[in-house]
Amino acid sequence: MKKILFQAFNFYSEKRLLTIGLLGTIAASLLGFVLHARFDGVLDVHFVKSIKLYEPLLDNLINIFSITLFIFIAGKIVNSKTRLIDILNASLIARLPYYLISLANINGYMADLSERMLGLATQQPEALQINPLDITAILIFAFAFLLLLIYYMYLLYKGYQVATNAKGALPIGLFVIAVILAEVISKLIIYFIA
Predict the structure, then answer these.
(1) Where do transmembrane segments lie in this chain (predicted)?
(2) Are 127 and 120 in contact (CB under 8 A)?
(3) Do 117 and 130 form a contact (C-beta atoms < 8 A)?
(4) Global pTM?
(5) How far is CA 100 from CA 15, 148, 152, 188, in A?
């Protein structure tokens, strides 16, 4: 089990990783549609009241394209033998646990809570009262989001590290820059397309 959770890139073939990644992305996009989750950035998830069937899939494809592009460029700088398929697989597989964040919006709970809080905070800040159940839900969601984000970044870096044979500070710096650029570009593309 440890092998699957932390070292998948060392043990599974590129075909198997690609298949799992693509099927997982499609399933997660359907889940995003059902639970009204928009993955509108490499590092972002937002819950909305209405959503079109294609939006979560389009979001995910843009995010995967962006992260793959910039991580691949970083990988080529680190090691000219870096293969695109290895970086694509890292991008696909790393996102799989991150998609679980959409489960926080079962029955539209997080979308409704966000809307209530934003509406009160902007229109009647003095009336903003949050009950203990809402505070607990926010704290649990924030903690789960942080854990899944850390795991996503860990898997993405491990895939990048295996694909490039990265060692030292330069690959880490390039990785961080690549993730930041991918986040900015993915948000811009999604903003202009949607």
Answers:
(1) 20-37, 57-75, 87-110, 135-157, 169-193
(2) yes
(3) yes
(4) 0.87
(5) 24, 8, 11, 24
Number of structural domains found in the chain: 1
Q: What is the DSSP string of 132-164?
A: HHHHHHHHHHHHHHHHHHHHHHHHHHHHHHHHH
Give the integer Cα–Cα distance in Å for 39 and 186: 10
For residue 129, what pLDDT band results from cuts at 50, 70 and 90? low
User: How far apart are alpha carbons 40 and 183 in whole angstroms?
Assistant: 9
Assigned token pair, 164: 């490039």
Tokens of 133: 């159940």
H or E stretch including 17?
Answer: helix 14-34
Question: E strands within 28-156?
Answer: 37-38, 46-47
CA atoms of 9 and 67, how far apart (whole Å): 17
The residue range of the domain holding 124 is 2-193
pLDDT digits (tens, 9 = 90+) for 65-94: 999 999 999 999 999 999 999 999 999 999
